[in-house]
Amino acid sequence: MTKSLIYSLAVATMALGGTALAETIAPDAVEIVDMEVNASITGSAGNATDGRDAFADRKKGNCLACHANSDLKEQLFHGEVGPSLDGAADRWNEAQLRAIVIDSKQVFGEQTVMPGFYSLNVGINVAEDFKGTTILTAEEVEDVVAYLMTLKDN
Amino acid sequence: MIKMRTLTAVMSGLLAATAATAVLAGGPVDEALIIDGETEITTRTAAPEGHPFDELISGWHYRTDETRALQADSFQNPGMLYVERGEEIWNTADGAAGKSCADCHGDASESMKGVGAAYPKWDAASNRPVNIELQIDACRKNNMQAEPYKFDAADQKALTTYIRHQSQGMPVGIDLSQGEMQSWWDNGKDLYYTRTGQLNLSCANCHEENNGNYIRADHLSQGNVNGFPTYRLKQSEMVSLHNRFRGCIRDTRAEFPAAFSDELMALEVYVTWRGTGLAVETPAVRQ
Question: What DSSP assignment string belongs to B36-56?
Answer without folding.
Answer: TTTEEE--EEEPPTT-S-SEE
